[in-house]
Amino acid sequence: MTLTDAPGLPCVHREVRLARRVGDEELTGRHFTVAEVPLPSPGPDQVLVRTRYMVVTAAMRTRMTAARLPMPSFEPGQPLSGAAVGEVVAAPGGAFAPGDLVHHPHGWREFAVVDAARVRAIDPTALPSLLAHLSQGDTAWGALRRAAEVRPGDTVFVTGAAGGVGSLAGQLARRLGAGRVIGSTGSEAKAARLRAELGYDATVVRGAGPIEEQLRRATPDGIDVLLDTVGGEQLRAALAVARPEARFALVGLLSSQLGGDGGATCPVELDAGLIITRRVALRGFGRYAHPDLAEEWTAEFGRGLRDGSLVFPHALLKGIEQAPRALCELTQGRHVGAVIVEL
Fold first, then answer.
1. Sign (positive or negative) of CA dihedral 75, 77, 79, 80
2. Could you give the 3-state DSSP secondary structure of residue 37?
3. How many Å apart are CA 286 and CA 299, to the nearest integer?
4. Any residues with CB less than 8 A from the CB of 124 and at least 6 apart, and which?
5. Measured between alpha carbons, how far is 124 from 86 in angstroms, rounded to an integer?
6. Whole-angstrom Cα distance, residue 26 to residue 334?
7. What is the pLDDT of residues 269-289, one digit of tens each?
8. Residue 296 CA: distances (Å) to CA of 42, 121, 141, 274, 285
């Protein structure tokens, strides 16, 4: 019996491909195609996974451009990829068994053949829902706890506070003892939700006046910690109001990724004098440099979700054909929290 003869498995499935590269224009559905292709068969050291949920992120738009990047770019005519969770349906090598729940890097397709070494088993009891394994809270948790080392009473500023990282960062800063938390976002409607639901005391709204002036009003005594997902003017403003010994954790480049050619660099002029005289520590943070972080974060997230001390803001779109729309809406700032597609 061949794989496609197995009960419940189709002969074909769908995947989303890059139709053409993105320049400085707005990302639209014209940049994608949805193709129907034969169901792939796994080799001895691979597994076949039925994808249940996938997440879209700003970095995916960056990978659709012609910019020189530290990660592989998406190629026209080829499927996109990204973090996803699903169920193993075939595993010839025996490392996994059919029915196992796993995290894998080949979203944007209903079924994926993945090298077994790139698949991570998921404990079905660890979190209340499978899609919660696609939160970006591990980045927020690691940046605040390990890079910025939030201390009781700290004043924390989070840029891009309505995004996948920022929507959890306000809650986590509180969890780590912060005394005051300020977040930036792109609209007053989002700002109101950040203050009402997601742990923020005050907000800075992009386009409502100079960021530095708004930040000084929100935190007249300055900030101790920055978790920066944006860069640009917001990073410069944070430095201007930094207290002595402030700790900055830099995790994203949204000001570059969501505009222009979507490059992976984000030049900004910073006052070296302020950095030196106030002894500000700037540290880049990437979760992939911390392989032990996933287990630590999952345990913390599970406790918080079950006792109600944490919430997981997200938008859920259903059907692989909605994946292009999900990424377009993310780049337009249409949602609060993670943007997830159920396949």
1. positive
2. strand
3. 19
4. 101, 130
5. 11
6. 14
7. 889 999 999 999 999 998 888
8. 31, 15, 9, 35, 16
Using CA atoms, how far apart are residues 114 and 221, in angstroms rounded to an integer?
51
Sequence length of the chain is 343
Q: In one letter, which amino acid is 132? A: A
CB-CB contact of 229 with 159 (8 Å)? yes
Three-class DSSP labels, 193-210: HHHHHCCCCEEEECCCCC
pTM above 0.85, yes or no: yes
| Alpha helix ranges (H) inside the chain | 58-62, 137-142, 166-175, 188-197, 211-218, 232-240, 254-257, 272-277, 293-307, 323-331
Instruction: Tell me how far apart the alpha carbons of residues 108 and 101 are, in angstroms, rounded to a whole number.
Output: 17
Question: In a 10 Å sphere around its CB, with 0-12 CB exposed, 13-18 middle and 19+ buried, how is residue 91 labelled?
Answer: buried
Tokens for 71? 């990660």
Dig out the tokens for 295 from the structure.
Answer: 């287990």
Distance from C-alpha of 143 to C-alpha of 173, rounded to nearest angstrom: 10
**Strand 101-104, strand 111-115: pairing:** unpaired
What does the pLDDT look like over 9-36, one tens digit per residue?
999 999 999 999 998 899 999 999 999 9
Beta bridge partners of 314: 338
The residues with which 317 forms a beta bridge, in sequence order, are 341
For the chain, what is the total number of helices (H) and then of strands (E)?
10, 15
Instruction: Give the C-alpha separation, 188 to 215, whole Å.
Output: 15
Q: Is 94 left (phi over 0), alpha (psi -120 to 50) or beta?
A: left
